[in-house]
Amino acid sequence: RGIKASPESAIILYNFAAFLENHRKDYSLADDYYQRALEADPTDTDIHAAYADFLEDRIKNKKLAQRHRLIANGAHAAVSSAKNTKHSEPGTPTARGPAGTNRYADT
User: Fold this and answer.
1) pLDDT tens digits, 14-55
2) Half-sphere exposure of 57 toward its Cβ, with a 13 Å CA cutoff?
3) Cβ neighbours for 19, distance < 8 A, ≥ 6 positions apart
4) Residues near 11 by Cβ (< 8 Å), separated by ≥ 6?
5) In angstroms, what CA-CA distances link 40 with 34, 43, 94, 97?
């Protein structure tokens, strides 16, 4: 139902991919839905990280997994850095806070 209601929702596509992977064990279809989720939101670092795990653990494609892991880590670091940079007076150094949280950490 969720996919029919929101076929372009990255989070719904991701959740369905994870369901297919973990419950149905339909890795071919799960791969399709991970890719659709990334097409819907190519900047979602958590989906890149989950897809990297899927590729490495289920598909055994370490090279492609590493590519997605680098995207996830690189983009996540840039986003965290931007979110956690506190600007004070112009010309003064910036302070960085703790890194953000991963909304898919338990998946």
Assistant:
1) 999 999 999 999 999 999 999 999 999 999 999 999 999 999
2) 13
3) none
4) 37
5) 10, 9, 34, 30
pTM reported for the whole predicted model: 0.68
Residue 83 neighbours by CB under 8 Å, 6+ apart: 100
Q: Are 69 and 76 in contact (CB under 8 A)?
A: no
Q: Report d(CA 47, CA 40) in Å as an integer.
A: 11
Q: pLDDT tens-digit profile of 57-95?
A: 999 999 999 999 999 998 656 555 555 544 444 443 333
Q: Which residues, 6 or more positions from 35, have their beta carbon under 8 angstroms from its beta carbon?
A: 51
Helix-helix angle 62-83:45-54, to 10 degrees? 160
CA distance 99 to 6: 31
Exposed (0-12), middle (13-18) or buried (19+): which is 32, by Cβ within 10 Å? middle
